[in-house]
Specification:
Helix content is 61%, strand content 0%. The chain is built from 4 helices and no strands.
Length: 104
């Protein structure tokens, strides 16, 4: 799958854009379902999840890297399910959590 994804995302600009849109839409559906169920955070956008998944696929997509890919996917899932605020969120991000201020 890594080779196919790499080809789709890098070769043809129109195909790449269309593929990204379709993948982002699919991830958004899963993300919203997870938010509704209370298991996925609201402040992590679907495009960031897609790029994270693509990164895992590209760096650990070979069969002999399966265990590493599973660890990386666990890290990603920990990030999107963790109750803390995501560093990438801004106060204007959809579903952003309140900013925690510490100290003066």
């Amino acid at each position: 799958m890594a080779d196919t994804l790499r080809t789709l995302l890098h070769n043809d600009e129109h195909l790449s854009s269309q593929t990204r849109e379709q993948l982002t839409g699919a991830i958004e559906e899963f993300r919203r379902a997870g938010i509704t169920q209370g298991v996925i955070r609201k402040d992590v956008p679907a495009p960031d999840i897609l790029m994270s998944l693509a990164g895992v696929t590209l760096v650990a997509g070979a069969a002999h890297q399966r265990v590493q890919a599973e660890r990386l996917l666990d890290l990603l899932m920990d990030a999107v399910t963790r109750p803390d605020r995501w560093r990438g969120a801004t106060d204007s991000s959809p579903g952003a959590l309140p900013v925690r201020r510490t100290g003066t």
